[in-house]
Amino acid sequence: MQDEFDLPPETRDAVSRIFHLYDPPLWLVTAGDGHRRSGMIATSATRASIVAEWPRMLIAIAKQHDTWSRIETTGRFALHLLRHDDLDTVWRFGLASGHRVDKFADLVLPDTPGGNPLYPGALSWLDCRVEQQMGSGDRSIYLAGITGGALLQQAPVLTVATLLRDAPPERKAALDRLYIQDQAIDHAAILAWRRSHQRL
User: Fold this and answer.
1) Which of 40, 45, 105, 168 could crosslink 59 through cysteines, CB 3.0-4.6 Å?
2) From CA 28, how far away is CA 93, in angstroms rounded?
C-alpha cells in the first residue's frame, strides 16, 4: 500500500540537500541506573527553551540503543559536546552496541550530580531530567529540563560534517554500515507505528 509520506526521488534528493545546509553537532549521551552505564553518539538534540532560569533540551533516541533503556529506567541523561578533533570518542561510543560491549570498561569516570556518567574530555556537559516523552515508532522524543552543567573547555565543536570529512576510510565504511542497518530498523518501526495510528 502506498504511504502518503513516500516521496518521489527528486523530492528525497531535495530534502537531503536541505538537511545538508546545516551542520548539527555530535552529542555524547550518557545515562546510568546505578548498576549499568550507557553512552551513545547522537545528532538529534537541540535547545528547547529561551527561558534562562528553565533551560530545556529536546532529544530523540532510537529504541534499539542500550542508552534508551537507561533513560527509560531513570528518566535522566547527560549531554556532552565534543572537541572538533575528538574522533576517538565517536569510535568508542558510536561504533559498538552497548548491548554487546561495556563502552566504559577501561574508564574511571565520575558521575554528574544527576547520577549520569560525566565525560571529562568533553567541552561541556548538561544534566537533564525528562519532563515529557512522545513515541514516534523508531524513537522516543524527550523534552528534558536541564538540572546542571558546566563548560569545561573552549574549542570548536565536533559536527557531522567534520566527522565525515576527517574519518579514516575504514571508520567511514563502518559508520555507513551502521547507518544502513539503523535505517532498516527505523523504517520498520515507523511503518508499524503509522499503521497502529491509522496513518496508512
Assistant:
1) 45
2) 8
Phi and psi torsions of 21, nearest 5°: -75, -20
Beta bridge partners of 78: 30, 127
In the sheet where 124-135 sits, what is the strand order? Answer: 37-42, 27-32, 76-81, 124-135, 139-151, 56-62, 45-47
More confident residue, 131 or 198: 131
Tell me the C-alpha distance between 18 and 32, whole Å: 36
Rounded to 5°, the CA angle 138-142-146 comes to 150
Kindly report the backbone phi and psi dihedral angles of residue 85, in degrees, each rounded to the nearest multiple of 5, phi listed first: -105, 10
Rg for the chain, CA atoms, rounded: 17
Kindly write down the DSSP assignment for every residue of 56-92, as one continuous string: EEEEEEETTSHHHHHHHHHSEEEEEE-BTT-HHHHHH
Nine-digit cell string for 7: 516521496
Report pLDDT digits (tens) over 89-126.
Answer: 999 998 877 677 888 888 888 999 999 999 989 999 99
